[in-house]
Each structure stands twice: as structure tokens, then as C-alpha cells.
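#struct-help
A.M.: can someone run this one for me? Single chain, 135 residues.
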Amino acid sequence: MDHKRSFFTRLAQAAAHATGRPIAFLIAVLVVAGWAVSGPFMGFSDTWQLFINTGTTVATFLMVFLMQSTQNRDTKALQIKLDELIRACEGADNQLLDLEEIDEDELAEIQARYEHLAEDSRKRGGDGSVRPLGD
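D.P.: on it. C-alpha cells below:
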């Protein structure tokens, strides 16, 4: 399998890794502390306030897209792995392979069926038996 990743994917993964580390948080705290300490020297001016407001807004704006990209990729990979486990397990209900593609009402209906199965299993003492969706 070819693992060639796009520039954006490599950049997003590297940025997510870097910003998720304790040192990144420490740097952010130091920036805010430095900004706060500089307040009296800047006369708590509008420019002084605008500096932190603009910086945090831009950082937040970019991080939202970075986190969404990372979450989308991770979710897709997890779905593929789960689909393979469902497909490979004898007796598994293959109707579950594409649940992420159905609408909310259908999803709620299937969830209710599985909640009912879990309730039945608890009543039976959790014998581990499972019925497919169609039963």
C-alpha cells in the first residue's frame, strides 16, 4: 500500500502533533503572560489590546480547520477499520458497514434496536448471544 501523503496532510499532522504537546501550551501561556506584563508599558492602549485579540483570533481560526482536518482523517480511518472487523467476523451484520452514511432517523432506529438487544442480554444474565438486526 502506497503511503504517499499530500503536503497538506503532512503539514496538518505535524501541526496537530506540535500544538498538542505541553511545550506548545507553555509557549501560549508565556505569550499571554508577556502580553499582560507589557500592558502597563503600553498604557493598556487599544493597540495593545488589538494585538492579543488579533493573534488569538487568527490562531483559533486556523486551529479550527486543522482540528477538523485531523478529526475527519482519523474518523475515516477508524470507520474503515471497523468496517473491516464487521466484514471479517462471521455472523456479523453487514448492514452496519455504512452506518456513517445514513440519516439521523435511520441511525436512531438502529441504535434503539441495539439498546433493546443490550437490555435483553442483561435480563438473560449477559450470556453474550447476539441477534442480527433483521431478527
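A.M.: thanks! The chain has a mean pLDDT of 88.
D.P.: also worth noting: The two ends are 39 Å apart (CA to CA).
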